Amino acid sequence: MPRQKIELRIRRQDSPTGSSRWEEFSIPWQPSMNVISCLMEIRKNPVTKQGQKTTPVHWESSCLEEVCGACTMLVNGKPRQSCTALVDNMPDGPITLEPLTKFPVVRDLQVDRKPMFEALKIVKAWVPIDGTYDLGPGPKMSAADAELNYAFSRCMTCGCCMEVCPQYNSHSDFIGPAPLAQVRLFNAHPTGRMNAHERLDAIMGRGGIVDCGNAQNCVEACPKEIPLTEAFGDLGRQTTVHWLQSLFGK
Amino acid sequence: MAAPRIAIVGGGLAGLMAAIKVAEAGVAVDLFSIVPVKRSHSVCAQGGINGAVNVKGENDSPEIHFVDTCKGGDFLANQPPVKGMCYAAPGIIYLFDRMGVTFNRTAEGLLDFRRFGGTLHHRTAFAGATTGQQLLYALDEQVRRHEAAGLVTKYEGWEFVGTVKDDAGRCVGLTAIDLRTMKTKAFPADAVMLGTGGPGLLFGKSTNSLINSGSAAAAAYMDGADYANGEFIQIHPTAIPGADKLRLMSESARGEGGRVWVPRKKGDARPPRQIPEAEREYFLEEKYPKYRNLVPRDVASREIHNVCVNRGLGIGADGMGVYLDLTHIPRETLKRKLEGILEIYEKFTGEDPCDEPMRIFPAVHYSMGGLWVDYEPTKDGFIDLGSPKNHMTNIPGLYAIGECEYQYHGANRLGANSLLSCVYAGQVAGPAAVVHALGQAKTGAGTPASVFEAAEKRWTGRFAELAKRNGPENPYKIHEELGIAMLSNVTIVRENGKLQETDAKILELMERWKNATVLDDGQWANAPLSFMNQLENMLHLSRVVTLGALARNESRGAHFKPDFPDRDDANWQKTTVASFTPNGPSFRYDPVDVSLCTPVARKYD
Questions:
Q1: Domain covering A5-111 in this structure, CATH number
Q2: B20/A46 Cβ within 8 A
């Protein structure tokens, strides 16, 4: 029996420096709604449950099919993409929406995930090709290797793993699970491997792989089921070998 | 001589490819995007990218790819750029392979290819069913490398609002609004390139991302850039109906063997798997024995529409749906080749498509039309890649690439040609803009600062005026009404009476837009303020689409009028070119260069 009304509790904040407050909304149920379509309903008539006029809720979203990562927020306390948060799958009672807590709030439900993109620069998350002119085919790769790498290349920089990682926070230098997994990806590529040492150097110091506390929350939270903890085990071995090699000279 | 700079707007496949090409030439790039570029709409492309690499012993070739593309587009595209694209395609796929895209592989470790619509060859390279995402990420990584090296400066969270032109009418920069501070700023540039995507939002719900408003292209049109073939809107045959969006169910599902059917008996309410084979109508296979389920998208969408609306055989409570069946294919094969789309279907419907036939219906997907752009042909029918004319709009110095321009797909785009056309456009337009920019930079003094000050003042004033609006209308409701009108009347079947009604509706909405309120008087991250501005642009662009469709009394590709059911080459083998006037679009019709591939009747049976 679907609910008649959808109740939402939304944590709102007007600016990065402002304080936050809760607002409640009540909107009519329609078939196949998700959290985004609820927010769209609210902006067509931005009035709280108590009848107070308010501003439309601010949020970030784009693809609405869980491939862009934009609409990540806390839905009932859990980090996830709000586009796949279907109302009919939610438990009874109000749905609470809050911004991610590990990134600065821009406004309402939008946060600034720039640190994640910056981290991709630090770990050199790319294959250093000579140029984009036509140089023929790339290296051969087995179907199995390609499939495993594909799992890692689906990371959409959404931030769920960062949100649940106890080591990733404002008083730690830890770079976080998502960029580390990209080191695993590029070090496995036949061309990317040529620069593996540069990526390993980047994650061997403070804030790197040793700061992972092995809480394993990340792998639970990842919406794309990326085998993050396996990657960190592998990176642990890679950095150890790299350290020994540099110790005894290649 | 000042060091040249090129501004690129849009960080999808086209914009990022162009940015890399420009940076490789040693020229600085300012890259503008309303979202972090890694979240651009290219991520939604699923099935793959075409290129006649010919690894399946089928004697495929770029020439056959070219012929398939011309025919798929019902011979409305100028042919030299299409030929250039198809011949460049294998090299483009290899390039992505070198960048590390995790394409599916054969047993030997080579790139695997699958079938797609409108061709009989295995020509589509793919990375699971999230190929667009994977290609975009590869370019995003390469751009980040250039960014780290200092040649690319990103302006993410900035929205293009208009071009800046000098007294001679040349584009010398752009104005953009910072979507956080809501401040406008003019940026000088020796060339400006728009790669701002399609206009799916004109139709309310579509397979497009929420950022695909078409507003940037419309703003360029209102600044004097011509808009070509706007009436050609692709309706994808297979999408998952939804309240907020119609989610794409990739053509690759049919490329891997998916079959489309309905029960033969009207109103047959049995669960699909209990309906025996003999009581199912595989209507595409029966009518098109050669291409079967892989007819081009316009053909498949019209057939589904016919089965549901005219014959009443559709499934579901409203009869608006057909089955797309994968259940005869082993689960392991499906997971390996289609995982991304199976996951989407399951997450949004709760049903596992490996066990249950999917329920799908057509949805607005892609605009073949877009900003008019030029090209420089060579004598042998290719493109002169040293020319600054390639991809330049009729405004000197303003370029357009990707879905926001019109060049490659004619009246209907073939599946898996969109990623290709975006990348190829970026590869061609980047160097063209560099040639233009170097020429501009050489002319010396540059544009006086007053030109940029005036542009900034104009836009600051415009947003201040919009912010003060306090009428009774809600802009999001106006948009909803626009979407309903466009979706009902300007999609699969078009009737002149309905098109006239739609234009009247758009004019009504334009009046009501003047009485809309911005809903939010905040000075920070005010999304409704930006939307008010976009909405006006979208209304103007909707008229281009609707009136273009009204004028074209024939049926060609995605444009179908039951009252004019045939293609009419004598009168309509012409490019529609719309120019902005304050009273609405004015149209002219240009001849199409069909010198390389002779038009024939478009048959797939």
A1: 3.10.20.30
A2: no
A80-100 pLDDT, tens digit per residue, is 999 999 999 999 999 999 999
Residue B538 has pLDDT above 90, yes or no: yes
Do residues B500 and B490 lie in contact, with contact meaning Cβ atoms separated by under 8 Å?
no
Strand order in the sheet with B574-579: B370-371, B227-228, B574-579, B586-591
| CA B500 to chain CA centroid, nearest Å | 25
Contacts of A221 (CB under 8 A, 6+ apart): A78, A79, A160, A161, A163, A164
Query: Tens digits of per-residue pLDDT, B142-164?
Result: 999 999 999 999 999 999 999 99
Catalytic status, residue B297: yes
Within 8 A of A189 by CB-CB distance, chain B residues are 100
Quick check: B441 pLDDT over 80?
no
Question: B-contacting residues of A 116-145, CB under 8 Å?
Answer: 117, 120-121, 124-129, 131-132, 134-138, 140-143
Residues of chain A with CATH 3.10.20.30: 5-111
With 60 as the cut, is the pLDDT of residue A227 above it? yes
* Domains, chain B: 236-363 (3.90.700.10), 452-571 (1.20.58.100)
Domain with CATH 1.10.1060.10 in chain A: 114-248
Interface touch A67/B340, C-beta < 8 Å: yes
Contact state of B144 with A126 under an 8 Å Cβ cutoff: yes
Sequential DSSP letters for B459-514: HHHHHHHHHH-B-SB-HHHHHHHHHHHHHHHSSSS--HHHHHHHHHHHHHHHHHHT
Report strand pairing: B586-591 vs B574-579.
antiparallel
The residue in chain A having the minimum alpha-carbon distance to the alpha carbon of residue B39 is A68
Domain A114-248 has CATH 1.10.1610.10: no
Count of alpha carbons within 13 angstroms of residue B251, beta-carbon side: 33
Residue among B31, B33, B34, B38 with most chain A CBs within 10 A, to mutate: B38
Nearest beta carbon to residue B44 from set A15, A67, A117: A67
Nearest to A44 among B43, B180, B476 (CB): B476
Percent of chain A with pLDDT over 90: 95
Of B46, B97, B99, B102, which to mutate for an interface test with A (greatest number of A Cβ within 10 Å)? B102
ipTM value: 0.98
Q: Could you tell me if B416 and B50 are in contact, meaning their C-beta atoms sit under 8 angstroms apart? A: yes
Mode of pairing for the β-strands spanning B233-240 and B247-248: antiparallel
Question: Which pLDDT band holds residue B244 (cuts at 50, 70, 90)?
Answer: confident
DSSP state of B74: T
CA angle A178, A180, A184 (to 5 degrees): 115
Does the CB of A194 have a partner CB in chain B at under 8 Å? no
Alpha carbon distances (Å) from A177 to A180, A188, B290, B321: 5, 17, 50, 42
Rounded to the nearest angstrom, the minimum Cα separation between A197 and chain B is 17
Long-range pairs, B376-385, Cβ under 8 A, ≥24: B377/B80, B377/B593, B378/B80, B381/B79, B381/B80, B381/B83, B381/B595, B381/B596, B382/B80, B382/B83, B382/B84, B382/B87, B383/B80, B383/B81, B383/B84, B383/B428, B385/B428, B385/B431
Q: Which of B254, B297, B512, B556 is catalytic?
A: B297
The backbone torsions φ and ψ at residue A162, rounded to the nearest 5 degrees and listed phi first, read -70, -40
Q: What backbone torsions phi and psi does residue B597 show, to the nearest 5 degrees?
A: -150, 105
Q: Does the beta carbon of B147 lie under 8 angstroms from any beta carbon of chain A?
A: yes
Chain B contact for A33, CB < 8 A?
Answer: yes
| Separation between Cα atoms, residue B545 and residue B194, nearest integer Å | 20
Q: Which of B24, B36, B101 sits opposite A131 (nearest CB)?
A: B24
**Residue B348: closest C-alpha in chain A:** A84
